[in-house]
Write a structure and sequence with these properties.
The protein has 464 residues and is an alpha/beta fold. 35% of the residues lie in helices and 22% in strands. Strands 1, 2, 3, 4, 5, 6 and 7 form a seven-stranded mixed sheet that branches. Helix 1 (25-41) crosses helix 4. The model has no long low-confidence stretch (mean pLDDT 96). The structure holds zinc ion. Zinc ion is lined by residues 104-105, 239-241, 243-244.
Length: 464
C-alpha cells in the first residue's frame, strides 16, 4: 500500500495535484480502487473514463483504469475527451459513473480527476468518501471488463447538431488554447453549418500560447484581432478541458458568465414561462431583473461548481451560469455544464436574430461593475476576515444576502465578499446603477477591508 498520500489533493469539486509531487501512477491506481469501490458500494458497475492531453495524463489514465478494473467495475475507455463529453456519455449510455483525468485550466505540470456519478458531479462529501476509502485501504475486489469506447465525441456532436437550426451560417473564430476543445469544437462548428478559423488548434500540453482559461482577459488579444481581421460574427475561448467558454462579439468585446446568461434567458424563458433560473451570487443584479421581467423565477445561489449544479437539480431549474463561464442549459438538453451546447445555442440566437452579436449584447441591461477581484489573505484567517465583513455589512447595508459570505446592498448597488472554497483568497466584486454610485460602493468595501489586519484591496490589481 502507498506509504504517504497528500490528502490536500481532494478538493471541494475535484481532485487536483502536481504530477511527480503529490500525484503519481501509484496514487492514480489507488484512487481508481477507491472510486471503483465507492461506485460498487453505491450500486454501480460501469464507469466511462477519459483523459486530457497533459504529459502525465496517458499513464495516469492507464493506472486509474487498472485500479477501477481491480474492484470488479467495468471500464469504458473514451481515450482523449473533453469533460462535457464525459458527462454527456453518462447521460447517453447505460453507464453508472464517469471520470476524466484533467486539471482543467491549470498549468501543464498539474493534473487531477473530475468524477461524475448518478448523473451529477460528485459532491464534496462524496469526494471525501473516496478519500477515506483510499486511506482505509479496504477495496472491493473483482475482475472488471475493459472496452474501448471512442464514439462519444461523434455522438455528442450529432446530439447537438440535431437540436440546432440556423437561418444563416456565421463566420466564427475559436481559440482552443492548444487543449481539449481541439477534439470536438472545429467539427461541431462545421456540422452545424458555420465557417470557422481556429487559433491554437495544435495540441500543446505545455500551453505555450497562453493558459487555457477564458476568465483571464489577457488571453484574448489574438482572438479579438483575428475576429476583426476576418470580419467574423463571433469568437470563442475554451479552457483546458473545454467545459468553460468565453465569448467575443463581432466588435471584439468580451462577454462572460452573467451577460451570456441574460442572452440565454431571453431565448429560453419566453418558451418556458415561469421556469427557475439559478443565479450565482457574483452575478449582476441585471440578471435577476431580466429573469423577473421575462416571467422566470431567479434563485440566487452560492458560488462553486458542484453547488450550482446541485441547486439546478434540486430546483429543477432550466438555466444556470457562473461568472467563471460554466453554463448549464437544461432546455432541450441535459443538466450539466456543456460549453459545446452553450456555444451552439449562442450561435443559434445570433444567426436567427437578424442582428449582430454586438447589437444583441448592446441591448442587454448593463450596470457599471468591477470584475471579480481575488485578494490573497492568510488561509487560517480567511473565514474570520469574511465574518467581520459580514457582521459590518449587516449593520450598514440597506439589505443583504448571507448565503455565502455577504452580498450587501448599499448606494444603489451591491458588493460581494466571500472566501474562496479552494484557495487562500477572498473574492470581492461590486456593481451599481451609475459610475458615481459604483465608486461609493467600492470606497465602502475598501475602507472596511483595508482596516482588517493582513488585508489590502487594491482596485488597480485584480489579483493581489
Ligand atoms: Zn475546465
Amino acid at each position: 500500500m502507498m506509504k504517504e498520500i497528500d490528502t490536500s489533493i481532494f478538493k471541494a469539486y475535484d481532485i487536483r495535484g502536481i504530477a511527480g509531487e503529490n500525484l503519481s501512477e501509484e496514487i492514480m491506481e489507488g484512487i481508481g480502487k477507491a472510486y471503483g469501490t465507492f461506485v460498487k458500494r453505491n450500486g454501480g458497475k460501469i464507469i466511462v473514463t477519459g483523459r486530457d492531453i497533459r504529459h502525465s495524463s496517458l499513464s495516469f489514465h492507464q493506472a486509474l483504469n487498472k485500479g477501477l478494473l481491480s474492484t470488479g467495475c467495468d471500464v469504458w475507455d473514451m481515450g482523449l475527451t473533453t469533460t462535457p463529453s464525459m458527462y454527456f456519455s453518462c447521460h447517453k449510455y447505460p453507464v453508472d459513473a464517469g471520470v476524466v483525468v484533467t486539471a482543467s485550466h491549470n498549468p501543464s505540470s498539474h493534473n487531477g480527476l473530475k468524477m461524475y456519478f448518478e448523473k451529477m458531479s460528485l459532491p464534496t462529501k462524496d469526494i471525501m468518501r473516496v478519500r477515506d476509502i483510499l486511506l482505509s485501504g479496504e477495496f472491493e475486489e473483482g475482475e472488471g471488463i475493459y472496452k474501448n469506447h471512442p464514439v462519444v465525441t461523434q455522438d455528442h456532436i450529432q446530439a447537438i447538431v440535431d437540436k440546432i437550426n440556423l437561418d444563416r451560417p456565421l463566420k466564427l473564430v475559436a481559440d482552443l488554447s492548444g487543449a481539449m476543445g481541439i477534439v470536438i469544437v472545429p467539427e461541431l462548428i462545421k456540422k452545424i453549418g458555420c465557417e470557422v478559423e481556429i487559433i491554437n488548434g495544435e495540441v500543446d500540453p505545455d500551453y505555450k500560447a497562453h493558459q487555457p482559461d477564458p476568465i483571464v482577459l489577457e488571453n484574448y488579444p489574438p482572438l479579438i484581432n483575428k475576429i476583426k481581421e476576418v470580419k467574423a460574427d463571433m469568437g470563442f475561448m475554451y479552457d483546458g478541458d473545454a467545459d468553460r467558454i468565453g465569448f467575443v462579439d463581432n466588435q471584439g468585446q468580451i462577454w462572460l458568465g452573467d451577460k451570456i446568461q441574460m442572452l440565454l434567458a431571453r431565448d429560453i424563458l419566453p418558451k418556458n414561462p415561469g421556469s427557475k433560473v439559478i443565479v450565482e451570487l457574483k452575478n449582476s443584479e441585471a440578471v435577476v431583473e431580466e429573469v423577473l421581467r421575462l416571467g422566470g423565477e431567479p434563485i440566487f445561489w452560492k458560488t462553486g461548481h458542484t453547488l450550482i449544479e446541485e441547486k439546478l437539480h434540486e430546483e429543477n431549474a432550466i438555466l444556470a451560469a457562473e461568472m467563471s463561464c460554466h453554463y448549464y442549459i437544461a432546455d432541450q438538453w441535459y443538466k450539466f455544464d456543456d460549453a459545446m451546447y452553450a456555444m451552439a445555442r449562442v450561435i443559434q440566437i445570433v444567426a436567427n436574430s437578424g442582428q449582430s452579436f454586438a447589437e444583441l449584447m448592446g441591448e442587454l441591461p448593463n450596470y457599471p461593475a468591477t470584475p471579480e477581484y481575488r485578494v490573497t489573505v492568510p488561509e487560517e484567517k480567511k473565514l474570520e476576515i469574511v465574518e467581520e465583513v459580514v457582521n459590518y455589512a449587516k449593520e450598514k447595508c440597506d439589505r443583504y444576502l448571507d448565503i455565502d459570505g455577504i452580498r450587501g446592498y448599499i448606494h444603489n448597488g451591491w458588493f460581494l465578499v466571500r472566501s474562496s472554497n479552494t484557495q487562500p483568497m477572498i473574492s470581492v466584486r461590486a456593481e451599481a446603477k451609475t459610475s458615481d454610485d459604483l465608486e461609493k460602493v467600492k470606497d465602502f468595501i475598501k475602507s472596511k477591508l483595508d482596516g482588517i489586519d493582513g488585508v489590502n484591496l487594491d482596485w488597480s490589481k485584480q489579483h493581489s
